[in-house]
Every structure is written in structure tokens, then in C-alpha cells.
Amino acid sequence: EMGKRMLAAGCEKRGANIMACGQHIDYRYCPECGQYEVINTSLCRDRMCPLCNWRLGLKRYAEMMQVMDELLPIIKKGHTVGMLTLTVRNVSLEKLSETLDKMALAYKRMTQRVTWKRQIMGYARNLEITRNKDDGSFHPHYHVLVVCHEGVEPGAAILSIAREWGEGLEANYIPICDGAEAYSNKDGAVLEGDLTGAILECSKYATKPGITKSMDDEELAEYSSILSGRQLISYGGIIAEERQKLGITDRRADQEPAGSILRIKDKCECGADMQGVIAEWAGGSQWSKVEIE
Asked: Is the N or the C terminus of the chain less surrounded, counting Cβ atoms within 10 Å?
């Protein structure tokens, strides 16, 4: 459906790519034990593709769970994991691009200040955009998972962070911000908030399906153009360092290589030769499969 809508909006190339997304899968399997590995999924990796958004959200969530598992020994020494929400006032579609630019610059300024560095050890920042059903305005905001320095609580830190955020935006109003604990270890007693929920918030994709349904063709074309090429998620501090140690890249979805696996095995672990297969979508729930040498 999104592919057809993008075509109708005049985005012919992107629409065609979305419609062809996931139409074939290249994989290898072992005829002896049944083990298999995916080599290429022919994903379009377009910012407006529901399938790629879903896949990328799962990938980011798995990566963050892996990172937090590695950081847990550090966190248990007395550090707190929190979720910050940084907002701006609602804006029209015409002002959305300019607002996103200001938000990115404000966040960069804020994280470079002493106040931030004294309180925050690392972060994962994700952009989400919602839309007001009544007036059609857009509400861009950041969800930020943070690992705080020992003794710092997100609820208390948010007061100074909100001030820094407002100054970075150069806003003539005080933006609404929120801070809550997701995981902490105080006096040896582990106090768990909603760490899984916090990781989900900083891993999901910017655009929810409901937003685009209310857009006409012209709005959809402009909105997709605004998101194209932007860095919607970023990492810093010990979270970025741990991602690097684990070999996790920070490429955007549209910068990823076509292949979806880093290695191709000729031999299975059981010792048998792997057999190559190309599966193409045949409609309904049917796949046509062609074995290759």
C-alpha cells in the first residue's frame, strides 16, 4: 500500500522500490540437518517502507539489549539507567524540517556542555514524530535512554537538562521534558523500572503507520523528503563505545549493504555441503524456489 501511495505522490523510484521490497530471498541450507542462513533479502531500506521499519526496529532492539547486557556489571555498581523525553512545540509540516534541524543542533550543543557530561555517561537517542488528530500539527520529540553517573537520578537531572535543552533550541518558551528511572541499584538493592520498555522507546522507528494514513499525496511526498537522509537515532558515551567493541555499526538503514549477512558458509557445521536457494514471492502465501549450485 505504501509503495502505491508513494507512486501516486510522484515518488516513482522510491515507490517502485518499496513495492518490490522483500520479493525474493537468497539463502543457503543444509540438506542433511536443515540448518540455513539468509544471504540477501532484497530489502529496499526506504525510510517510508513499513517492512524495513519493522525489521530495523527489531535489529536496533536486539543490539541495545546486547549492549545493556554488557554494561549491566557497570550499572550494578550504583549507576542508574533512565529514560528522558525531550519535546518541542507542535509545528506544521512546512516548519517540520526546520524544527528537526534545530532539535539536532540543540541536542549536540546540550551533550557537549559540562552539565550533561557530569550527569550522563552514555545515551541512545531516538526521534519519534506523532501527529495531532485535531489540527494536523506534528509533534517531533526525542526519547533518550541514558546511563547516569553514580549518584545521579534522571528525575533530578531532568531539571538542568530541560534548561540546557531549551537554551540549545533558542526557544522563547520552556519545553516540556520528562525523566524517569528504568533500572537502578541503590544500596545493594536492585530497583527495576521498565528497562525493556525504555529500550523499545529508543529503538522504534520515527514514523508510525497511523501518521501517513491521514496525509494526502502532496503531504506524503514532502514528509518523506524531510525524513530522507536524516540521522534519526544516535549513540554517545559508553553506549557508543560498547557498540564499537561489539562490532555494531552506526550506518543508517539506507546506507546498509544489500546483503544481510556478513559471511557465507560453503560447509555446514555437520560437515555437509550447503545448498543455495533463491525464493521469489509468488503471491498469496506462496513462494517459488529455485536451487542454485
From this structure: C
